[in-house]
């Protein structure tokens, strides 16, 4: 068989597979519509998005992937199929720190897929308020960065808000230097969010030591400003690059190549069922006395429950008293975790489970 005959046979096979894929995806979409009809008939029409169910599907895709595509790649494809099917059931509107082109925007698309309805907000406070008012069922907010630490404003908003954590997103952050200029020689000003400037400090010191660094509210705003300003550049990501039509003078200028930001999905759902691989976030406080924090955390150790993060913030009620944010491994409904939380509740003056939710899959 000649080369052309072999290629023609393979292409015919690909065409046949594509038809099968379209048929199966359409069949899946029809099943999603049927699910929506059943839920509406049962009066549970608001419960279309199921974080634990989606996490289970994506983990199964990665665990049973036969190759040659990588598991992460295949899971992203399924993420988009689920996003499109969910949009058929009920369009999902998500609030996030805007404008479009921010890393939070990218986190929304990574977690919910391209078929989500975007609601960019001007501040983190507005994201919380939109979800609290039920204008948007969910919001996405940054909580911590692997190199710059916690986002304090997000923690402070949780203290006053009744919202819950429904999920998390881990986004590898790649900063690019974007500009209308053709080379670094023409860059006199660099716009970026303060954290982005900090995460690229060494590169900027070495390559643009004399350029003025101007902090803005977001990297998307920086890209928008650079698109209108001769002699300016912005630190931003791929989404902003394509959205504002800028040139990438240099890619991946972050000082730490493993730079990752963690985002939280916030909503009004008090309880997300266990997915099998979960986290629980808790807000607690205790009086300022010797050994108080040790006694507070002892129930976790006694029950063999691992704590992956602890942060403190001023209570703003009494000087030198603090509230603590804990992330622990496991779901609040798991027997060991449930027992540990009961012990923690006894030791705490303030105790609130912010949410139990699936650990990030993608």
From TrEMBL:
The keyword ATP-binding does not apply. GO terms for biological process: chorismate metabolic process; L-phenylalanine biosynthetic process. Keywords: Amino-acid biosynthesis, Aromatic amino acid biosynthesis, Cytoplasm, Isomerase, Lyase, Multifunctional enzyme, Phenylalanine biosynthesis. One of its GO terms (cellular component) is cytoplasm. The record marks 261 as: Essential for prephenate dehydratase activity. It catalyses: prephenate + H(+) = 3-phenylpyruvate + CO2 + H2O; chorismate = prephenate. One of its GO terms (molecular function) is prephenate dehydratase activity. Its EC number is 4.2.1.51, 5.4.99.5. Residues 1-93 form the Chorismate mutase domain. It comes from Acidihalobacter aeolianus. Pathway: Metabolic intermediate biosynthesis; prephenate biosynthesis; prephenate from chorismate: step 1/1; Amino-acid biosynthesis; L-phenylalanine biosynthesis; phenylpyruvate from prephenate: step 1/1. InterPro entries: ACT-like_dom_sf, ACT_dom, Chor_mutase/pphenate_deHydtase, Chorismate_II_sf, CM_dom_sf, CM_II_prokaryot, G/b/e-P-prot_chorismate_mutase, Preph_deHydtase. The keyword Transmembrane helix does not apply. It is found in: Cytoplasm. This is Bifunctional chorismate mutase/prephenate dehydratase. Pfam families: ACT (PF01842), CM_2 (PF01817), PDT (PF00800). It comes from the Bacteria. NCBIfam families: CM_P2, PRK11898.1.
């Amino acid at each position: 068989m000649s080369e052309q005959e072999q290629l023609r046979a393979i292409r015919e096979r690909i065409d046949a597979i594509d038809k099968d894929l379209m048929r199966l995806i359409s069949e899946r979409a029809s099943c999603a519509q049927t699910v929506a009809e059943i839920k509406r008939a049962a009066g549970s029409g608001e419960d279309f998005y199921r974080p634990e169910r989606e996490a289970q599907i994506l983990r199964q895709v990665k665990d049973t992937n036969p190759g040659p595509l990588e598991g992460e790649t295949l899971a992203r494809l399924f993420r988009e199929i689920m996003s499109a099917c969910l949009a058929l059931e009920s369009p999902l509107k998500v609030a996030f720190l805007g404008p479009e082109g921010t890393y939070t925007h990218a986190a929304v698309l990574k977690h919910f897929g391209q078929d989500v309805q975007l609601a960019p907000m001007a501040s983190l406070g507005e994201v919380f308020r939109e979800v609290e008012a039920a204008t948007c069922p969910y919001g996405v907010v940054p909580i911590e960065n692997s190199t710059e630490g916690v986002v304090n404003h997000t923690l402070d908003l949780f203290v006053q808000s009744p919202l819950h954590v429904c999920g998390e997103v881990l986004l590898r952050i790649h900063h690019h230097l974007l500009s209308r200029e053709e080379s670094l020689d023409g860059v006199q000003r660099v716009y970026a969010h303060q954290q982005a400037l900090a995460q690229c400090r060494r590169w900027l010191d070495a390559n643009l030591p004399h350029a003025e660094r101007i902090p803005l509210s977001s990297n998307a705003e920086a890209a928008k400003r650079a698109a209108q300003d001769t002699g300016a550049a912005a630190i931003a990501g791929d989404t902003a690059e394509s959205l504002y039509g800028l040139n990438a003078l240099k890619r991946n200028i972050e000082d730490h190549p493993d730079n990752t930001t963690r985002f939280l999905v916030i909503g009004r759902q008090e309880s997300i069922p266990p997915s099998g691989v979960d986290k629980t976030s808790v807000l607690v406080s205790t009086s300022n006395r010797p050994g108080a924090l040790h006694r507070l955390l002892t129930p976790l150790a006694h029950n063999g429950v691992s704590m992956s993060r602890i942060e403190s913030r001023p209570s703003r009620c009494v000087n030198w008293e603090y509230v603590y944010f804990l992330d622990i491994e496991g779901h609040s409904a798991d027997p060991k975790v449930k027992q540990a939380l009961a012990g923690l509740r006894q030791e705490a003056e303030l105790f609130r489970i912010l949410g139990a939710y699936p650990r990030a899959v993608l």
